[in-house]
Amino acid sequence: MGGEGEGRLFETRVRRGRTWYKLYAASVCGGVCLTWVYRATNIPEIGEKGRWAWMGMLVAELCFGFYWVLTQSFRWCPIYHRTFKERLSQKYGNELPPVDIFVCTADPTIEPPVLVMNTVLSVMAYDYPPEKLSIYVSDDGASELTFYALLEATDFVRHWISFCKRFNVEPRSPAAYFSSPEQHDLRYASELDCIKEMYYAMENRIKVATDFGRVASSVNKQHKGFSEWNSQITPGNHQAIVQILIDGRDQNAIDIEGNTLPTLVYLSREKRPRYPHNFKAGALNALIRVSSEISNSPVILNVDCDMYSNSSESVKNAMCFFLDEESGQQIGYVQFPQNFNNLDKNNIYGDYISIVNEVEMPGLGDSIYLGTGCFHRRESLCGRKYSEHRRMLRDMCNQVKIRKPEESTSFLEERAKDLASCTYEQNTNWGKDIGIKYGCLVEDVVTGLSIQMNGWRSIYYNPSRKGFLGISPTTLSQLLVQHKRWSEGLFQTFLSKYCPFLYGYGKIELRLQMSYATYMLWAPMSLPTLYYVIIPSLCLLKGIPLYPRISSSWFPVFVYVIIGTQAYSLGEALWCQQSFRSWWNMQRMRLMRRTCSYFFSLLDTTMQSLGLGKSSFDITAKVADHEALERLKKGVMEFGSSSPMFSVLAVIAMLNLLCLVASVIMAVVREGFKDQMALQFLLCGMLVMLNLPIYHGMFLRKDRGRLPTFLALESCLIAALACLLSLY
Length: 728
Known about the structure:
Elements: E1 10-14, H1 18-41, H2 51-75, E2 79-83, H3 85-92, E3 99-105, H4 113-124, E4 133-139, H5 144-167, H6 174-178, H7 189-212, H8 217-220, E5 241-246, E6 263-268, H9 279-294, E7 299-304, E8 308-309, H10 314-322, E9 331-335, H11 353-360, E10 374-377, H12 378-381, H13 409-419, H14 443-453, E11 457-460, E12 468-469, H15 476-495, H16 500-503, H17 510-520, H18 526-542, H19 555-575, H20 580-609, H21 626-633, H22 644-671, H23 678-690, H24 692-700, H25 709-726
Parallel strand pairs: 3-4, 3-7, 4-6, 9-11
Antiparallel strand pairs: 1-2, 5-6, 7-10, 8-12, 9-10
Helix pairs in contact: 1-2, 1-19, 2-17, 2-18, 4-5, 5-7, 9-13, 15-20, 18-20, 18-22, 18-23, 19-20, 20-22, 22-23, 22-24, 22-25
């Protein structure tokens, strides 16, 4: 899309050196096909031991092979983008399109008001004309505590924006900046001490109110907005609340140096028990409508409340794509990667975000909409199709809402409340053809796919300085629940009319269709994985070989496929600046996700298809207790509660341990080592090594983060019974 022309605002480059990778991939593909040939031509005779286990291995390996082919869509031809912000400044100066920024929160107990406030402050301080920025906070929990935190921020931001721009501060989230070792600069030590004192005093006031559970009566008198709250309001039953906290067009809305402040709007859309609210998708659609009444900017950025801006130049980077004269008019959205600032050095929970950001997403050609850190062209988000005769974004700035003299702040607030009512969307196309899609747990993915189907292109942009930083799950339970929700929604999408191979046929590239399918098939891939971690180990215990003997000519084929894929996976992780230990943790968590999160999402999707269940939206907690955080810093996995997922993990871990120990004892004492069992010993041994944290949590730990004793005993009993039954 982009080139190196003198007037271009971005360029696109294809990653070099892919010939060697294609040769490697072709060799692995050949090896995989040969393993299928071996399975198909060596099926045990009818009545012979292990026939059904062998056929199951064939099916599982067919699934693994086809899925591996899908993953090659990421790696075949990755592309990277580079922006030229200096050209943007030379060309447009301050005549840049306005931007509406949406920040979504839903529960003040899971997403603390201080967290939300820091994200809001970070996006208000962008290196962008402040009169062109309008920030909208959607509070789906209708919490006066969140409103109070934003009200406190309206005073602090007058000092914070000025401080950031005078001293070129990065990042511009106060909490992140003050905790960063980079901020100790003696040139502005006195100003730093002053702004820190102001921030911590404000933070303390908000935390006191949060701990108390409500805002003090003396504070309620400070702003008319508090009159919206009464004893009848609950998170799921309340009227629409719209408060313009800072009106950027008001001459009095200025910072301490006299510069204009960005607009800041608080929104809590109306919720009533008998009307569906459609979770985050409904909140975003309400924001689209409310913002169209107040500012109507042609570009929209949406971020989650825990994903603060880490780079003040992100808006300008996005504008380099939208305002490019050759291809900018076709770009529907620009997606920045998700990154996290709370990962421990050894990556104990095997977060593979670096692989996604550096390898998978650049290989898409276009980009999947990830639900946060994304700049949208408003018209693409509102369901309009791309046309070659569509105007450039800079020519659309006259569509921005022009304030009439009679339109006071109170007048706009009342108009906006109508757009945020729970009945507004009835008998309309909102959630269908307009706005964020409804009816799926991964509304962001479906919305992005629909935008691409309307002819728009999308950009994945991963700058050297990360655009946004958020909070990853800090316990194993949080991680597994999060992936269960994602995989369930993705698989539901695959089974719906939005299946990329059907919905996208002839309209988007096959590579992009395959990439979508790679994520959407997480759930069904749990079945071959479960088969592979259980059946070979039980067959090892019973003495049934499922792989060729060492002396067989087929043995090197299996060894090459195993070593080749794992060695490349390790090399990929090292290229992404991950350590060997981090890569090993990734393998462990991939196993846990597939055998737990994806398996339970498959069960839930099946039950829902049969009319026996209903989808729900689980918010991932953004806070953890002090002891859990200390264990995270030490690289200790957090269990701490009973869960069906933990039961599955513990049973699989114990089954493999019992099978390995019993098989080794039998080989040493009675039968001797059989070379046809070598690969099964290797597989079982690797599974035991991957499950070491589970054994540690079951038997050796005494802290509150260990696996519950009852669950450990139950798992041992089930695994022992399974081993005994397999011997008969």
